[in-house]
Amino acid sequence: MPINIPKSLPAGEILRKEKIFVMEEDRAQTQQIRPLNILVCNLMPEKEKTELQLLRLLGNTPLQTNVTFLNTATYLSKNVSKSHLDTFYKTFNEIKHRRFDGMIITGAPVERMEFEDVHYWNEITEIMDWAKINVTSCMYICWGAQAALYHHFGIGKFELPKKCSGIYSHVITDLTVDLVRGFSDEYVAPHSRHTSVSIEDVRNCPELRLLSFSEEAGPFIIQSKDTKHIMITGHLEYDATTLADEYKRDVEKGEPVELPVNYFPNNDPNKTPKNTWRAHSHLLFYNWLNYYVYQETPYDWHFVDDMIEFHI
User: Lower Cβ count inside 10 Å, N or C end of the chain?
Assistant: First the structure.
């Protein structure tokens, strides 16, 4: 089934060429079906690249999905045009009256800052608190995962001696959990961050379940036991060349970065890396949408509102 996107969204043409089933909004409105409504709070600087990465994964399931992009009102991104934001993005005030079946909060280039020092921290915490009632299941990626762990569960982050960048091997702690259904016993995934969270803190939190970790990169897939919060500390959504682009960007800035590990063929940055994590990326998003969004979300949110009023 398709993802429903605005007619002129730049990612749409690329997705069609990749044979991702895309349906424009006007056609979607004629379909006699209850699509899933997914809110994407996109905090990444290169928003159009992130849009494409996430839409590619959201569009590869049997479920029809409406996607709404959310931008912060308290901070204006410098790497995307205002016209793009005005055309394709909403602010929290414009959507907070709605209910959503799922929400994704992306990573952000602010991980070295204290959470409270981030320009839009108050806005993000307001969104996360609102989502407790108005969203069935939330997925948080990289900094978004650290923000959720800190805000919801009191688990802080710490700065690493050097950037964790590359492709790392991970294991699953419990293959019977629906989120990792179909995963291999061992698989690889990209990480790109200067900070991390303590695996002991995650394991010791009674509200959390550690589903996957890396001996080198630390905790990776973390789920709240009520299944409403799913924290992914890495970037399964990344394209094959995303880490290469980040590495070259940092080199040009003169930052003391090392080659991403297990990434470039023969550790040669002039060679094109391969995507060795694509299958598990699609599987993770498929499992999330199917087991934690589609099978859990109310068909009619108005019925939920009526039940809440009845019990009150």
Answer: C
Q: What is the pLDDT of residues 1-47, one digit of tens each?
A: 455 667 677 777 777 776 565 655 554 444 445 789 999 999 999 99
Active-site residue identified among 191, 237, 246, 280: 237
How far are the Cα atoms of 72, 153, 192 from residue 242, in angstroms, in the given order?
24, 30, 10
The answer to the question of whether 209 is labelled as a binding residue is no
* Whole-number pLDDT of residue 309: 41
For the domain with range 3-158+195-235+284-311, which CATH number is right: 3.40.50.1820, 3.40.50.2300, 3.40.50.880, 3.40.50.1240?
3.40.50.880
Marked catalytic residue, from 191, 235, 246, 280: 235
- What does the domain layout of the chain look like in residue ranges? 3-158+195-235+284-311
Task: Give the confidence band of 308 by pLDDT, cuts at 50, 70, 90.
Answer: very low
CB-count exposure of residue 130 (10 Å: 0-12, 13-18, 19+): middle
pLDDT tens readout for residues 163-202: 999 999 999 999 999 999 999 999 999 999 999 999 999 9
* Catalytic status, residue 111: no
Kindly name the residue from 41, 138, 142, 164 that is annotated as catalytic.
Answer: 142
* Tokens of residue 210, six digits: 């550690």
281 is in an annotated binding site: no
pLDDT digits (tens, 9 = 90+) for 97-120: 999 999 999 999 999 999 999 999
Determine whether the annotation assigns residue 27 to a binding site. no
Give yes or no: 151 in active site.
no
Taking the alpha carbons at both ends of the chain, their separation in whole angstroms is 38
**To which H or E segment does residue 162 belong?**
strand 158-172
